[in-house]
């Protein structure tokens, strides 16, 4: 009798565990909401005036945008190519960009934009590029 009850409880526990697990698309959506509500309002970095996240569930992709007060010119573009990857690495280390999502196949397109919304630098984070990026 006790063995039978234990088996039933085990099956129920496994069923609850499976139901509570989130799939990648749910995690993607949850990350975008959390980023825009919690991370973006308090985000501070040199020259960054605004940051936002946008999710593309069907493409397993997240777009992060960092708007700056910098003018579009070669000097700012050259500086961005050096400083922007450092900022992204710091965000990965702080789990503001979660490795787990990248390792599950979510692509992050990360843009560093000038004050006229033109691209100063763009980085694409995938499972493959993450290894090279974090060196």
UniProtKB/TrEMBL annotation:
Database matches in PROSITE patterns: PROKAR_LIPOPROTEIN (PS51257)
Name of this protein: Lipoprotein
Source organism: Flavobacterium ginsenosidimutans
């Amino acid at each position: 009798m006790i063995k039978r009850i234990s088996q039933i409880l085990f099956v129920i526990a496994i069923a609850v565990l499976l139901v509570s697990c989130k799939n990648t698309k749910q995690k993607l959506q949850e990350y975008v909401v959390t980023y825009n509500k919690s991370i973006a309002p308090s985000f501070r970095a040199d020259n960054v005036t605004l940051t936002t996240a946008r999710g593309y569930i069907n493409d397993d992709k997240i777009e992060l945008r960092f708007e700056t007060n910098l003018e579009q010119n070669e000097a700012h573009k050259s500086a961005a190519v050096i400083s922007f990857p450092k900022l992204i690495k710091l965000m990965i280390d702080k789990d503001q960009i979660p490795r787990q999502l990248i390792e599950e196949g979510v692509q992050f397109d990360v843009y560093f934009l000038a004050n006229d919304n033109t691209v100063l630098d763009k980085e694409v984070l995938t499972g493959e590029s993450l290894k090279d990026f974090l060196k």
